[in-house]
Amino acid sequence: MPATRLRWPLSAVLVTGPSMAPTLRHGDAVLVRRGGRATRPGDVVIAVFRTRPDLLVVKRAVRPVDGGWWLSGDNGLVTDDSRSYGVADVQGRVVARYWPRPGRVPPRPL
């Protein structure tokens, strides 16, 4: 998805691509909270890779690195995460999926 900075404390974001399956699927709409508690390993986040500032991504936070985060997709077959693009800057945390299957998007221990 093209990078657009989150402007509101709670924003809607549409997921595109298969990298977060099965947790999130292409076409899912999620609510993202900017601010609030600090990012923790296992959180699903919205971020921008430092090497791809034009691309806003939905990934899972793995560990803090160099003032940013190492991110991973839940779908191990897709490598468009920190393995390819390096460190990312987190813009917000995914707190819920509201379409088409409403529900929380809980953190997963890594």
UniProtKB/TrEMBL annotation:
Lineage per the UniProt record: Bacteria, Bacillati, Actinomycetota, Actinomycetes, Micromonosporales
GO cellular component terms listed in the entry, alphabetical order: membrane
Keyword S-adenosyl-L-methionine on entry: no
Membrane-spanning ranges: none
Domain Peptidase S24/S26A/S26B/S26C, residue spans: 12-94
InterPro entries, sorted: LexA/Signal_pep-like_sf, Mito_IMP1_subunit, Peptidase_S24_S26A/B/C
CDD domains for the chain: Peptidase_S24_S26
Species assigned in the record: Micromonospora sediminimaris
Membrane as UniProt keyword: yes
One Gene Ontology MF term: hydrolase activity
Location of this chain's protein in the cell: Membrane
Pfam families listed in its UniProt record: Peptidase_S24
Record keywords: Hydrolase, Membrane
PANTHER family assigned: MITOCHONDRIAL INNER MEMBRANE PROTEASE SUBUNIT 1 (PTHR12383:SF16), PROTEASE FAMILY S26 MITOCHONDRIAL INNER MEMBRANE PROTEASE-RELATED (PTHR12383)
Name listed for the protein in its UniProt record: Peptidase S24/S26A/S26B/S26C domain-containing protein
Alphabetical list of Gene3D superfamilies matching this protein: Umud Fragment, subunit A
